[in-house]
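Quick note —
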Amino acid sequence: MKKLVTYAAALLLTTMSTSFAQNNTQQDLDNAIQTAENIPQDVQNASNAIDRLVYELNISSTPDADAFYNDLFVLVNQIQNNADDIDYFMSLAHDESTVPFSTASVNGLTAQLVVLNDDVITLTNQIKDAVVENRYSDANSLIPGLRNAIAAQADVATDIISEIEAIKLATTVYTVEIRLVDAQGNPTSTNDLQGYYAYNEATSEYIYPEDERGYSTEFFFLPAGTYTFDSFNGYWSGTGSNTVTLSNALVNEDGVIIVDLVLWSE
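Predicted structure written out below.
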């Protein structure tokens, strides 16, 4: 009994450790997404500042170059900060995840945000100078380019969110428990089987669940995908296989996906 309790405790610790690491990973990815979601609002605020300047240039004839400049540089600073924060959260997620993934696609997009910032800075300075020098026609001609630059930043933010959502899906780790059932689907048991395995239908990889001592267990920790689960026959018994596509819809209230294998005995 003592050995059984020790084994159960060790298995629980392994489950908790894996779950904790992936929960942290998912939270970091969510933080990166939330940061990217701030960018369209920052862009909208900058767009409002441009609209105000256009009105002042062409209707009221009282353009406020300093207010326009300050509002646009709020966007510039926010873009830089958000790009840095996204990269930071992605780095944390990468280091904590038990499922390897690359941050290159997201890092490339945050780099695009910063490059577009250079365009925003250049155009903002040119427009401010034109307004100060009463070259209103020149200022008006530069505004479409500025609008395009900040709109592109909003588009890049959308791409960033899509990339991170894909990474979230790929790094989700499901806890899968094998349950033995009879031909009628009733839970049953045996101590004759020699262990279990899962076959990844996409990669042709075989996965063998083991605890920290190297002993076979009925628990798998698997990323999203389609797997065929089966057992190694014992002397008197064996099981049929079961092919399952892991998804959130299969997770029960305990956070586990139960996969049934039909047991047969001679």
